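Our working data are protein records whose layout never changes between entries. Instead of coordinates, the fold is spelled out as a row of discrete tokens. Here is such a record, shown just as it appears in the course material:
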Amino acid sequence: MGRGATNQKGPQRAFLNAVQSIIAVDGKLLVNLMVAAEGEEELGSPHYPQIIDKYEDRLQDAVGAIFPFNSQRPDGVLSMILGVKGIIYFELEARGGPHGGPTEAEIHGSYKAAVDSPTWRLVQALASMTSDDGNTIQIENYYDDLRPMSDEEQRLMNGVLENLNEQQLKQPLGVERWIDAMDGEKSQMELLLMPTLNIDGIWAGYTGEGVKTILPHMATAKVDSRLPPGIDPQKALAKIRAHLDQNGFEDIEMRVLSSYPAAQTSVDADMVKAAISVGNKYTAAVTVSPRIAGSAPFYQFTERLGIPMVPYGIGFGTGAHAPNEIMLIYPREGSKVAGLAEIEKSYVDFLYALAAD
């Protein structure tokens, strides 16, 4: 338990243990393996392109890339994914200036009777970007580049929905209700298909204990938008900037911290077929989803190098990015979820399956 247990140190270590075991027994691997790793995923992986830059000529000849990943549900079903959404992450900041508000530092709260508030201005700018309930993006033309589901995506989602366990989806999240009380099937389609606009954090002025009556001179929010295939990150950022300007918020500063596009691999790729085959050996069943609602810089492989990228692995983990993140090592008796030893064995089988291909 701890940050990084399942995302990403646990499954990564399990994969490396499998590699070490093969070398110990056979003396060498049956496949050539390159490891490309960094620790800045939560920062948007700003330096990952430099890794690819250095080894691009060699990586282009790879049959594919594997991302070790705990993919089992509590009922033992292996939920494979083939892709991720893209993302833009930025800060919006309101400050006092010629348009109003204190410019140098916070002032006494009583002056609000005559002085504009940068905090209220930021809140109003944020509110202008969605419907009143915060669930529909109202940035002009933001949904225009959404592409319809392909035949392959529809077939895969049909299989996912047949094996859907809505309670298992909600429980780890601590969520009792989806938006508009939608059912589990609808929620999964929304997660797959739709872009988001999310406030990650917002702060201004005094937030400590007790009372401090001030009018802050600045307010800041961190915002992200998850982008399904078809939506270009740079175009999305431009639409947000244009929306702010057109609605009278030209003074709101926008600082881009991260952006990259979606990535997806076909279920017909040989590497995916090998993963499904091994998954069927070790788990109760295998479902394959075109992508998840989260983001990762997989585009470096799928778009830039043109090779398949497979997040794969049995085992269970949950709570990604939280301090109580876990990876299951020793399942209780009767559990259908794999423990660490089986996870490592499955990675061995996966590498042998690749070699056979």
Q: What stands out?
A: Residues 139 and 239 are 7 Å apart (CA to CA). The two ends are 37 Å apart (CA to CA). The chain has a mean pLDDT of 93. The chain has two domains: 5-84+262-356, 86-146+194-260.
